[in-house]
Amino acid sequence: MNLTEIERHFLARLASEPWTSSPTFDHERVARLVELGLVEAEPLASGEVEYRITEAGRAAL
């Protein structure tokens, strides 16, 4: 699987802790990671989304 530099950076960031998006974050930037099962996305009541790396995502690093 070929990940872009931005995708690898995002996974590396999530490896240490989950991340909650700002309301203006462009979720399309990480949609492929979610589709591939490398990242989980949990919508929050505030309109933000919490992103967490999966075991598959850790293995991809």
What do you see in this structure?
It is a single chain. The chain is α+β, with helices and mostly antiparallel strands. 38% of the residues lie in helices and 20% in strands. A three-stranded antiparallel beta sheet has the order 1-3-2. A hairpin with a 5-residue loop joins strand 2 and strand 3 (49-53). The longest helix has 12 residues, at 5-16. It is globular.
Strand content: 15-25%
Helix content: 25-40%
Compute the separation of the termini in Å.
11 Å
Q: Strand order, main sheet: write it out.
A: 1-3-2
Which secondary-structure class do the elements indicate? Answer: alpha+beta
Could you report the average pLDDT, rounded to the nearest whole number?
A: 94
| CA-atom Rg in angstroms | 11 Å
Principal-axis shape equals globular
Biggest β-sheet strands, sense, barrel: 3 strands, antiparallel
Beta strands, count: 3
Number of helices: 3
Low-pLDDT segments, ≥5 res: none
Name the helix and strand elements from N-terminus to C-terminus, one letter apiece.
Answer: HEHEEH
